[in-house]
Amino acid sequence: MRIDRLLCYLRFVRTRSQALELVQTGHIRCNAASGTHRVTRPSHSVAIGDVLAFPMGKTVRIIELIALPDRRRSPEQARLCYRDLDPGAETAIAGSHHAIE
To answer: Which of 13, 27, 75, 90 would be 18's cystine partner, CB 3.0–4.6 Å?
Structure first.
């Protein structure tokens, strides 16, 4: 399945155009555990078992695909297709906001 379609079907973005923009930023990684692979093409193919890391707001989402959706479904059904590897979204893009003492 194409990564742009997957991001839309799993409801990380609303449209494939937004998915295209996200891919074109060059900040999506696929299967970083087996070597960092930067995703730069919206036609990049993903499969069950792939681990994806991508920015969402001020955090980085890290998910493992456990199923491939055949279409855009409800948010509850979309969440059944992936496992969140950082459920508290503790991976921040920017540094900590704690004051330096």
So the answer is: 13
What is the residue extent of each domain of the chain? Answer: 3-84
pLDDT in tens for each of the 101 residues of the chain?
999 999 999 999 999 999 999 999 999 999 855 566 899 999 999 999 999 999 998 899 999 999 999 999 999 999 999 999 987 766 555 554 444 43
Overall fold of domain 3-84: 3.10.290
> How crowded is residue 10: how many other Cβ atoms within 10 Å of its Cβ?
23
- Distance between CA atoms of residues 1 and 4, nearest Å: 9
pTM of the model: 0.81
d(C-alpha 14, C-alpha 38), whole Å: 22
